[in-house]
Amino acid sequence: MSDIATVGIGCRYAGCIDAPESFWDFVADQRDGVVDIAAQRWDYRRFYDSDKRTPGRMRAKRAAFLTGDPQPLPR
Prior knowledge:
Number of helices: 1
GO molecular function, one term: acyltransferase activity
Strand order of the largest sheet: 1-2
Distance between the termini: 35 Å
Organism: Nocardia uniformis
Structural class: little secondary structure
Pfam families: ketoacyl-synt (PF00109)
InterPro entries: Ketoacyl_synth_N (IPR014030), Thiolase-like (IPR016039)
Largest sheet: 2 strands, antiparallel
Protein name: Beta-ketoacyl synthase-like N-terminal domain-containing protein
């Protein structure tokens, strides 16, 4: 078996995770990144139907969203 070294990590996830430290804090605190869908994103009530067989509708009232503006990757 070969030794493996982690020399860098980057992450951006729901729940305001934007660095390795915030990722590990999120895990250690057993937090949940799934939240109610905010009205400024979209009004889920316009598209929601509890019957999963209804075409053109969604069953989700909650979701996991990234926060903040993404930074462009360096070239």
